[in-house]
Amino acid sequence: MTHSFPRPTGTAFTPDAFETQTVNTPAAERRAASLPARRSVKKDWQAAWLLRAITCIDLTTLAGDDTAGRVQRLCAKARNPVRADLLAALGVEGVTVGAVCVYPTMVPHAVKALAGSGIPVASVATGFPAGLTPLPLRLAEISYAVDQGAAEIDIVITREHVLTGNWAALYDEIAAMRAACGEAHLKAILATGDLKTLTNVYKASMVAMQAGADFIKTSTGKEDVNATLPVSLTMLRALRDYRDRTGQWVGFKPAGGLKTAKDAMNWQILMKEELGTRWLMPDLFRIGASSLLGDIERQLEHHVTGRYSAANRHALA
């Protein structure tokens, strides 16, 4: 992951940056609902936006029955996410996904399969998805994944710290995880579906950034409620406030529940409207997804041929 500006370093724990903030939930919901309704991107422009979305996908497999073979097939798809004939018809080449995300024990298989591609390997860690193993074990899991070759680490926070307002403990935990990552970039999963209120989402976002997160991420994909537009809007407002306060640019990753090309369009519209075009590049925006890519490729085939194919013609891997 290469930034055109310095990697965020975090700040000292600064409660006055967030303690008095509250989020107007009905207003956030209205704003989020208005964006897809107001923006309509069609034809060549839509194809371009969908190709951009592909470059921001963290192509993911986080299943209990993952195998080396499944990871290798996923990595082959990551290298060539769209059929060559479709890319030729669209006049583009060299399209790859943003990263491949796997469990720590699958990292060596992904690193080997992606050698020479420039695609980074991301690993979940820290007792994913619950994050309730002892902190020394969570830090050791980060170190293991980094040692195996992971360039990005998706950590999960202790939700209890948010629900009880123990912001200093949350800061210390994430700061320790950032230190364990070393040169690997840290994506802090807030598991927003467990945090109950948008105000908690805003505060947790600010604390994670103060502690040095390179990205803040909505969900593990395992909660009852995963990425939603109102939650994402709240996190983007926190990103903007933090940038304005510190000058540091932190990335954003929605994950869980993004399954269709329309979802990819809606979140890109949200990013552009709230943060601008620069925040739509893969060093600042990722989409955590497993099945999304197949639908995007299907929509691109429709753009090229005028016909919809069966979904099974665009298998993920």
Automatic annotation (TrEMBL):
Task: Identify the GO cellular component terms for this protein.
Answer: cytoplasm
The pathway entry for this protein reads as: Carbohydrate degradation; 2-deoxy-D-ribose 1-phosphate degradation; D-glyceraldehyde 3-phosphate and acetaldehyde from 2-deoxy-alpha-D-ribose 1-phosphate: step 2/2
| Top-level taxon of the source organism | Bacteria
Q: Per the record's keyword annotation, is Phosphoprotein included, yes or no?
A: no
Q: Which Pfam families match?
A: DeoC
Look up the EC number in the record and give it.
Answer: 4.1.2.4
Which GO BP terms apply? Answer: carbohydrate catabolic process; deoxyribonucleotide catabolic process
- Reactions listed under catalytic activity: 2-deoxy-D-ribose 5-phosphate = D-glyceraldehyde 3-phosphate + acetaldehyde
| Gene Ontology molecular function, alphabetical | deoxyribose-phosphate aldolase activity
Cell location? Cytoplasmic granule
Question: What keywords tag this UniProt record?
Answer: Cytoplasm, Lyase, Schiff base
Signal peptide annotation:
none
What InterPro entries would the database entry show? Answer: Aldolase_TIM (IPR013785), DeoC (IPR011343), DeoC/FbaB/LacD_aldolase (IPR002915)
What PANTHER family does the entry give?
Answer: DEOXYRIBOSE-PHOSPHATE ALDOLASE
Concerning its family, UniProt says: Belongs to the DeoC/FbaB aldolase family. DeoC type 2 subfamily.
According to UniProt, the name of this protein is Deoxyribose-phosphate aldolase
Q: Which organism is it from?
A: Gemmobacter aquatilis
